[in-house]
Amino acid sequence: MISARADLAELQVLPAKEVAAFASAGFRTAAELIDHLPKRHEDRRSFDRFPNQPTPVAVCLRGMVIDTSKRHSGRGGGFYEAIVLDGTGGVFGSGKITCRWFNMPFVHKLVAAGQELIVYGKVKDSNGRLIIDHPEFEILREDDEPGDSIHLERIVPIYRNIAGLAQRRLREIMHLLLVQCDPATLVVPFDIDPVTPRHTALRVAHFPDSLEQAAAARRRFALEEFFALQLNVVWRRVRHLEQSGRVLGKRTSLLTAFYKNLPFDLTEAQKRSIREIIADMRQPRPMNRLLQGDVGSGKTFVAMAAMLLAVDSGCQTALMAPTQILAEQHYLTFRRWLEPLGVRVALRTANRDETNGIGHADPPQMVIGTHALLYDESLFGDLGLIVIDEQHKFGVAQRAALIRRGLVPDVLVMTATPIPRTLTMTIYGDLDVSLLDEKPPGRGKIITAVREGAKQTDVTKFVKEQLASGRQAYLVYPLVEESENLKAESATEAFGKWRKRLPGHEVGLIHGKLKPDEKEEVMRRFREGEIAALVSTTVIEVGVDVPNASVMLLHHAERFGLAQIHQLRGRIGRGGHKGYCILLTDGKNPEAMEKLKVLEQSSDGFEIAEADLRLRGPGDVLGTQQSGLADLRFTDFLADTTLLREARAMADQVIAEDPALEGSHRSLRPLIQEATPIPWSYLTH
What we know:
The chain is α/β, with parallel strands linked by helices. Among the domains are: 1-45 and 154-186, no CATH class; 60-139, CATH 2.40.50.140; 253-436, P-loop containing nucleotide triphosphate hydrolases (Rossmann fold, 3-Layer(aba) Sandwich); 454-585, P-loop containing nucleotide triphosphate hydrolases (Rossmann fold, 3-Layer(aba) Sandwich), CATH 3.40.50. It has 20 helices and 23 strands.
């Protein structure tokens, strides 16, 4: 028996070349490598039939290579293709599939006529031929005898690739280590399931007897990982509750004056959220609250109310936004509503330092800005409240850096991206949550329609009619410039075409590659009606407020995420006029059409977020890097509310039994960190 905690090089069970390949991929011990669980399993006891039409999902096929060839594409690139004939059960049928690999010249050294292959991928139609592009593949050998083989006639693990190691060899190494490692060296400090030993669960996770066994094992290890995540969440929450802060919000004269000046009434959801914020600010511990609301639910006015309470308590406040466009829009909004109350509002971005006549003797009471707020040490004297808008756009370190500008300040983070309940439990489990679940009256109704293969003449006619009625339009594209890899029109290409299509109307262009002052000038002209139609990328996704804009055409809509389209759709209908969001697509992708139909049928951001989570997974929905989920291996289980609640209950129990993790659960202390959970293998070094 060997120790799983030992360095792979010391074990002397693998060649030095393979040890180096594993080290380059971040695997130094046997335990770390065994924790590299399969991304999926293939049931090689039986294979899919060779299809006679495209498949909506990936298929696993076994066949014989009967012909190969190198081809050249029109743009100078090349591809290698192999024609695979159905070989199910050893009797070759008439079904054929062509496998193609683009710009991968090494494949021709691996795949040759006469070889038996297993291939995995989606089948598509290409000019009448059934094709799998870039399939995963494995070459079978004559010595793969049924019974003893770990590669055939069984449920077979498929791993994420490690450079320098073939899938087949990786499988052999995993099997070797699982057989030879001492089970006692594969334990962790908190066993999720004491009934089934962890080493047994690991063997089942790699080499199960059934797909049901594999799924159950994956769920067990997902629970392990989520427990580590929830332990961090509960730890941070308990530590936060132990902090001593300052009591704010006792005086409400500015807030009362603000209410009286508003020409409309706040929604019940806004009032409820403000009451929750007031209660937090009056506690002798710092506020740590998330304000979550759908597009157009009125988060800005709630933030104003919170900041007024802090100003009335004699503190400075700061609002950090992710883009200059959004920061400048907030600045204009705050000045409009708060300067009549005598509140001093300043703007600080990388390109603008706007104090609006505020002198050194009277420092700004509210500072609106971008990440530039992090780099001016002279800006704040007594920062008591921090508001972070669209907070998921910022990294953990950036948020922490702004918080350190104050002395245990209250913190309010806001997001207009509706987040499914499971992700809220995971990412914001240490925050109190206020929910804006209704919209202010006076918003225009938005009609969303999917249009497959629409004629450009019809699209142009519709836009002209809307502009003629005095409205403005967003014309949104997924790319800034033309791409060789993606068949999608870019904003830069479309700009010239729309100028010709809309004679007599000013057409503007905005995208992320413009300089900040150029973007602001374009947005100023659009807000003031000088530009009638704005060709753009998703740079206008967050916070842009042009009440007269009532039309949005989303080109190549299948390339956008559900929540992203919902955010973009929120840019129209803000001025009481009926809005039209037209989703233009070629209709060729069934999965994309399912996604777009959700938007046609619902305007509820939370309902859409749940559908987005189901269709795309949490990593794509929220962005794992910014959300603190980058190291998670089981993001597919983040939609499992039951599993997350189970992990949270375990974490709550551990902290309740040992709040400082210095007693019975001292072994768990290395798992605690600020951002993301440490993998279990950290403890087996």
